TrEMBL record:
Residues covered by the OmpR/PhoB-type domain: 133-232
Record-given protein name: Response regulator transcription factor
Chain ranges of the Response regulatory domain: 5-118
CDD domains: REC_OmpR, trans_reg_C
InterPro entries per record: CheY-like_superfamily (IPR011006), OmpR/PhoB-type_DNA-bd (IPR001867), Sig_transdc_resp-reg_C-effctor (IPR016032), Sig_transdc_resp-reg_receiver (IPR001789), WalR-like (IPR039420), WH-like_DNA-bd_sf (IPR036388)
UniProt keyword terms in alphabetical order: DNA-binding, Phosphoprotein, Transcription, Transcription regulation, Two-component regulatory system
DNA-binding region: 133-232
Main location per the UniProt record: cytoplasm
Length: 237
């Protein structure tokens, strides 16, 4: 992951300089904007791998910048907010941001979250070729990505759109453990603002449809204290 470019938009010079200093220590290339309009201009003239936006900025705030960026790009976006109210945090995520952090912040926490967002973004890019496959197959289970159908033991199982997306995401990462928050952001994206109970409900419904015994699941297993993972035997003979 060389030549990673990050755009930071914040009207506080101290914040901009602090983030730039520490991110450049991590070998990232950093550009700075003092308001939302300047951030959009910079973004459209260069390729960036991450955008950090202050929630409150002159001329155009971070929320509006995020909305505009989301019409054309899926680049990871982190929101900075000085407000510690839950509504502000949810609003930041609800309009397409991938993460938020509240001021005053620990610079080391910011760096860790930046690395996580960039790593996740690169993983998604590398998975594109995998997801171009028409079928995801395991012994006893076939997911058809072209016509959005699930077949178990030669029987087609009806799923809702979100159930299918949840199963597809988990089955595309066999044996990888995901928290409820990670599943929510990857499957529901930025279209909804709900708590992680949404994920639990969909997991429960999905298990009832695909598991022979939903109380003792074979495919979607709980990793206690962390989240869920998909387990399936390869369909190769």
């Amino acid at each position: 992951m060389e030549n990673i470019s990050i755009l930071i938009a914040d009207d506080e010079k101290e914040i901009r300089d602090l983030l730039k200093k520490y991110l450049e220590r991590e070998q990232y290339q950093v550009d700075l904007a003092v308001n939302g309009q300047e951030a959009l201009q910079l973004f459209h003239n260069k390729t960036y791998h991450l955008v950090i936006l202050d929630l409150m900025m002159p001329k155009m705030d971070g929320i509006e910048v995020c909305r505009k960026l989301r019409t054309t790009t899926t680049v990871p976006i982190m929101m900075l907010t000085a407000k510690d109210q839950e509504v502000d945090k949810l609003l930041g995520l609800g309009i397409g941001a991938d993460d938020y952090i509240t001021k005053p912040f620990s610079i080391h926490e910011v760096i860790a979250r930046v690395k996580a967002l960039i790593r996740r973004s690169f993983i998604r890019e590398n998975e594109d070729s995998f997801l171009e496959k028409t079928l995801i197959t395991f012994k006893g289970l076939t997911i058809n990505l072209k016509n959005y159908t699930l077949t178990i033991a030669d029987k087609e199982i009806p799923l809702t759109a979100k159930e299918f997306e949840l199963l597809k995401f988990l089955a595309s990462h066999p044996e990888q453990v995901f928290t409820k928050t990670q599943l929510f952001h990857n499957v529901w994206g930025s279209d909804y603002i709900e708590d992680d109970n949404t994920v639990m409900v969909h997991i429960r419904k999905l298990r009832k449809k695909i598991e022979a015994d939903s109380s003792n699941p074979k495919f979607i297993q709980t990793v206690w204290g962390i989240g869920y993972k998909f387990v399936g035997e390869s369909d190769e003979n």
